[in-house]
Amino acid sequence: MRIFPATPGRLRVLWGATLLALAACTQAPAPEPPSASPFNTTDTAWIQLMIPMNEQLLPALDLAPPPLAPFAAELRASHEQELARLRLLRDRAGLSDDNPHTGHQMPGLVSEVDLAALRLDPSGLPAKLREHLEQGALLSRGEQDSGADQETRDLAASIGTARAAQVARLGAVSP
Amino acid sequence: MSRKLRALAATAAAGLFAAVLAVATQPAQADELVTHHEFQANCSVTTHRPDDPIVFPGLPGASHMHTFLGNNSTNAGSTDASLKAGQTNCRTPDDKSAYWFPSLEFKIAFPVSGDMSRVRLSSGRGYTWHYDFMNAWDGPTLQALVSHCVNGGLQCDPRGYDQYKPHRGAALGPDHRLPR
Fold first, then answer.
1. pLDDT averaged over consecutive 10-residue blocks of chain B (180 residues)?
2. Quick one: closest CA in B to A10, which residue?
3. How far apart are alpha carbons B83 and A161 in whole angstroms?
4. What's the mean pLDDT when you consider all of chain A?
5. Dihedral over Cα of A128, B105, B80, B36: its sign
6. Which of A4, A13, A106, A141 to mutate to probe the B interface, most B CBs <10 Å?
7. Which residues 22-41 of A have a C-beta within 8 angstroms of B?
């Protein structure tokens, strides 16, 4: 591999690079729903991101030390309830249950690497929880601003409210 | 629209890849030997944002950090129409496309050889590195470059000129636009 320092003001884009790029691309674009669907691309991208966001938080909650355990139990309950509603939306939108974010390292998404690090050192859990809750609030604002399906927007509003309260709770139990 | 163009780019690039392989096995000799089918889009960095208008349309902050080039209006809510209404820093002024890739501490020049699997990027392991593109080229300008450089078997600069085959001329004028 050849790595060169930055060339100021110029980036040489060879179309040959585009081939490698497209062939290696693991982030499938958000599927375009059929035109009759009430879901737009923001709705489907949000549903397909929020499901792994919530699912992948659950194993991290098991690592909560005793002072955080009651809050972790609250988060588990709320996240599982949201997951049930998210999966119903996914079905209604006609989306598959494939996770388009497998292996991705993204803000607020607890990856396998994150989980391994937390198992070694659970003291990092509050910071990870905060990142997850704040990212969930941000994503839900985006869905409320740009989504189309009313039920999806309603769930985003509900999750946004829940995340704000959870961030405040986290601040109280883990200052 | 952008999806269609991505497929098109992949098709065009597939032909190019074969040509690049041919370079490796045949030493260039005659001037007319066709070794490349390409042209450059030469654009500068505009901004860094945690956005991806293809994967997370309408969801600002949903992505890992990306470096954006070309069109200076690109964000999570970009559409074909918004890009056409924006400005570009690409050398070819009628290319208002958005280009982006996962942000790095350094830049990678292609072609790349070697094992990318141990490289860590904001998108995960190195082999997931990808370049994204939302097309907002002026149609006739893009057609002229594809026809002259890709179909014509040239290695073109952003003006559609191959410095090794000067007699073939350029697809665009001195101002990097179609002669009008």
1. 38 32 40 89 94 95 93 96 97 96 61 55 54 93 97 96 96 94
2. B44
3. 33
4. 85
5. negative
6. A13
7. 22-30, 32, 40-41
Structure confidence at residue B19 (pLDDT): 29
Distance from the Cα of B99 to chain A's closest Cα (Å) equals: 10
Of B14, B113, B114, the CB nearest to A19: B14
Q: Inter-chain contact B106–A40, Cβ cutoff 8 Å?
A: no
- The predicted structure's pLDDT at residue A18: 37
The pLDDT assigned to A12 comes to 41
> Model ipTM?
0.76
List, in sequence order, every residue forming a beta bridge with B170; answer none if it has no partner.
B161
Burial B34-48 (b: 16+ CB within 10 A, else e): eebbbbbbbbebbee
Which residues of chain A are modeled with pLDDT < 50?
A: 1-26
- Check: CB of residue A30 under 8 Å from CB of residue A62: no
Q: A67 vs chain B: nearest CA distance in angstroms?
A: 31
Quick check: A2 and B77 CB within 8 A?
A: no
- pLDDT digits 0-9 by tens, A84-99: 999 999 999 999 999 9
A-chain CB neighbours of B6 within 8 Å are 22, 29
CB contact under 8 A, A19 and B17: yes
Instruction: Flag if B106 and A6 touch (Cβ within 8 Å).
Output: yes
CA A76 to CA A105: how far, in whole Å? 22
Query: How does strand B155-156 pair with strand B38-39?
Result: parallel
Chain B residue with minimum CA distance to A53: B62
> In chain A, what percentage of residues exceed pLDDT 70?
80
The pLDDT of residue A33 is 55
Spatial separation of the C-alpha atoms in residues B125 and B46, rounded to whole Å: 25
**Taking the CB of residue A100, how many other CB atoms lie within 10 A of it?**
20
Angle at A126 between CA A121 and CA A128, to 5 degrees: 80
Alpha-helical segments (H) within chain A = 15-24, 41-55, 58-61, 69-92, 112-120, 125-146, 150-173
